[in-house]
Amino acid sequence: MAAEDADHAALIGKEFNTTEELSTFLQNHALRNGRKYRLYDKSGGRSRKYVCTSGEDCPFVINVNRRRYAKKFCPWYISSAMLEHANCQSAPKATLKQMLDLKAFKVAASSTKLPRAKDLIEQAKILDDINLENQLRTVYEAMKVIREKQSSGEITAYEPRVQLASFVDQFKELNPGSYTNVEASDDDDSFLRAIVVPGVLVRASRFNQLFYALEAGPINGQEYNQLLLIGRDGNLQNITLAAAIVDSASKDNYMWFFQACTQAGLKMDVPIFVDRTEPLLACGKALKLQFVHSTDHIIRDCTASFGCLFPTVKNLISKLQCCETRQLYDNTLQVIRRTANKDLALYFEKIDPEQWALFPNITTRPLYSWNSSNLIEAEMTAAQLDHVQNIHPVLYFESVLSLSIAKMYDRSCLAKSWIKERRQVTPGAEELFEKERQEAVNYDCLCSSEVLVYVSRLSEISTVVRRVDLEKKTCSCKDMVQNRIPCRHYCAALTRLGKFEQVYDAFGSEYQICTYAEAYLGRHIEKPLQTDLDMHNNTTTYPKYPKRKAPASPQSTNTHKKTPKKTSNDLDYSTDDE
């Protein structure tokens, strides 16, 4: 509602020198707001009324009048408007001129290789938030205009390598402390790999949860692979720390990626969640990285190797991962051997338990319950990159960085509001803690001293007793060690001793608002604009792309049919697409 009021205030009184200028403005306004307007009424050449194309049920209207004694200057102005839509089914259609002004089309026009029409449509969805799926004919017309302008020299086209070279140079200049690198093949000078690591995210990573996750997979429709290093902040939200494009998923490229992350300043002596591909495992062994695997990775790998797994077997695998002692791990593995098959049991015997099981890590390093979630799928869905085909390399990095820019701004705003609310820990951590606090009433406490308490469950004959040390802020259960958030046993002990106000002192530093603010408050990322890229004077030598077979040009099925004339009564000047 506030945005609508601001839009209304900006519209009223706005002046236009010509009718064409007025029509262009309203066309762009309609496209920006996802609607379609039409001229409803003209009165004596001095007033116009524009309404929504949905019909009488929609109250939207913009009234425009001509100033009576100012025909030479500003003859038209918006006198009143009702911008609210109701029962509205109108959908915008971009004109040819509007389409050529979209960011996706401008980037395509500056490249020597024009993408396919359906790829342009996908890129327009991401970069311009415009749906062109029902305007395929107009997209082809726009592509034809771009080719004609490139042929005539009106538009200068550059190799993607030149654009990316300028892009990374500009990005590094705008964001001091950032790391960028592009490399070529020694054999034929063809594209090999490129990486961007924003400096502000490197600094913030020191205040996040102490782990990373790697996304490694092909970019759909391309011969290249993307590598994303994902972290998680103190509010339990994912954040992309490094993004790279490589020519293949090889051991050499993986090693280059992790070495580049180290040179960028990222702390690499923490657990890194990865899948179990051979080149990646070989890279981890060579660099002595702390690779670990989630239960989801293990189950998918087992399904690919041994076929579909029964739910009981999947449950046993999850139970195997959660074992708190070596003896319990071996016993569960024997159950899998008897229940499933020997090959599956042999598969787990070959995996170092330290790389996926809980018991070797229970007291040495926090893993933040990593087996219960999949960081990468959520991050890639948010980035909207998983369905983009033949994406321009600059657009790929720009899309990743745009997401990082938006999230960094949101985090800065959140830190400011949480400080104002006098919060002590982040809402994400508070939500997990609240579940533990509610369970604390179900536990009995045996106080040994003012700082040492033994906790067990009420109304149960159980041998499981947890030892809580309030001085060291520890509990013998796995949850508090692994999540660095006070567990139910710790809450019960504090309540028994009447010291519950001290509970926030036991949260890990990554969850504290002061730490979160140190990482994100007032921080921001900048990205280069296409208009700022210097194609003639860049300091980075970027290699040429390997030649590919160009897609076939679309064949017109109706070459003799004339395009119908466009009317002035409708602000949608594009032809209807079949």
UniProtKB/TrEMBL annotation:
PROSITE patterns: ZF_SWIM. GO terms for molecular function: zinc ion binding. Keywords: Metal-binding, Zinc, Zinc-finger. Residues 466-498 form the SWIM-type domain. Residues 532-578 are annotated as: Disordered. The keyword Membrane does not apply. The keyword Cell division does not apply. Pfam families: SWIM (PF04434). This is SWIM-type domain-containing protein. It comes from Thraustotheca clavata.
